[in-house]
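--- STAGE predict ---
source: upstream dedup step, 1 unique chain passed
mode: sequence only
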Amino acid sequence: MEFDQLSHRVIGCAIEVHRTLGPGLLESAYEQCLAHELALNNIRFQLQHPQPVEYKGYRLDCGYRIDLLIEDSLIIELKSVSQLAEIHQAQILTYMKLAGLKTGLLINFNVIKLKDGINRLVL
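--- STAGE serialize ---
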């Protein structure tokens, strides 16, 4: 699978976090450490970016948050679960649609090798 340059850089940061911490922590710990690693690599991001729902011309703030919005073009959804489920993929695809973005990374840190926990999604 080919990754664009931004996705490749973000995945490199995620691998560094996973290499340092390993699996087994809470999602929130990985989120904070990945944010730190992104900052160290001069990658612009927003943490817990609010994502409203547009419904028939009406904007609803339902409390949805994108874990990491990278350079206003890439959505990162983090998990720390024993196995990704279809609902996790549905969640990031919905966020991508709501945000009008075409690319997202679903990253599960609770794996032995992080490459096994990375899913790239494109609308």
